[in-house]
Amino acid sequence: MNILCVESYPQAIYGQQKTLLSLLTLAESEGHSVSVVCTDAGPFCNEVENLGVPVAICNYPSRLAQYGGAIYRYGLLDKLALYGQLCGYVVSLRRFILEHQFDVVFCNDMRGLLTMGVAARLCGVPVVIWDKLDKPHGMLDWFQLPVASLNVIISDAVTKKYPVWQRRFFSSRIHSISDGVILNHFLGVSEDRESLCLETQHVALAMIGSISERKAQDRLLRVVPELVSQCPEARIVLVGQPDSHSQDYYRDLPNLAHPAVTHAGFRSDMPAVMNSIDVLVILSRQEGMGLVIVEAMAAGKPVIGTRAGGIPEVVVDGETGILVEGDDDAALLDAITTLCGDAELRERMGRAGRARAEAHFDRRKQHRRVIELMESLLEKTS
């Protein structure tokens, strides 16, 4: 099987990009031919090249290269110009697919589907997308199921953004497969609390991921003064960076300079980070699944999360962590103080989380299921 993988956001390596790196590595190890197309150069491209996988750069035309939110705000003339550029771009992608004779195109996000995916369908090549976002795209969501030959969703929560009639009409195209982690990477890893400014007596509560309104670091930071007054040993650790579109959000975060808060920046050594903290906190306003939750569970750490998107499908409330409503500060403080004051409870929830990760979130098993679906799809279309 000759697979073309498409990544539209190669400027960073977060959960989405890690998933694709793992998937293409597994596909290659099983004898499939894999190539990658990115829309720009970036750290992700470097990682792919280090794996020995061919990478091609197909830059977006100028109007399509804008951030998604800016595109949605285009006026009529700008949109007409965008559609003109998009048509020319898709035609060039179609030539690329035909030239390399790909059997299937795997899109890692909506932009990839609406560009390379459309080009592939014009060639008669089947298209697969692994949809990881529960965030609606407006009218664009109407195109996803008709374009995709196979629509893999990371959680059942993702389907809520699709029109109801499409969920019924295209139900055979929808397959739910959660992501996973390499479980052994999180065992036997040394702590690195010093780099996170943590002392022995501290209880570290970490928020890990891109700093943005969607990830909602503000929800935790705004309760820091009250939290520290109730739990003097509590420490907040932020791991991640704001992208260019979240700089204003980052500057306006409350209590960022509080002595109990450490911003550790981007970290690539996630097993060491997870083994250095005590509790993962994920308070996202929107979240397809939250791969970082599985990483925490694999390291035996309890999770405090919001009842948003796919988070409740991963965290078992009262067993592997505690779920709260997003803007209920009192419930959040209660959950944090409960775990801060009870090391035995943290240990018990951590063990339950590790067992759940082993049972449901083994990355190799989950990615093997995706490849099997692609193999089955190719057999049906041959």
Automatic annotation (TrEMBL):
InterPro entries with a match to the protein in the record: Glyco_trans_4-like_N, Glycosyltransferase_grp1
GO terms assigned for molecular function: glycosyltransferase activity
Record protein name field: Glycosyltransferase involved in cell wall bisynthesis
Residues annotated as domain Glycosyltransferase subfamily 4-like N-terminal: 15-129
Keyword line: Transferase
One of the Pfam families matching this protein, by short name: Glyco_trans_1_4
Nucleotide-binding in keyword set: no
Organism domain of life: Bacteria
Organism: Franzmannia pantelleriensis
Family annotation (CDD domains): GT4_PimA-like
Signal peptide: none
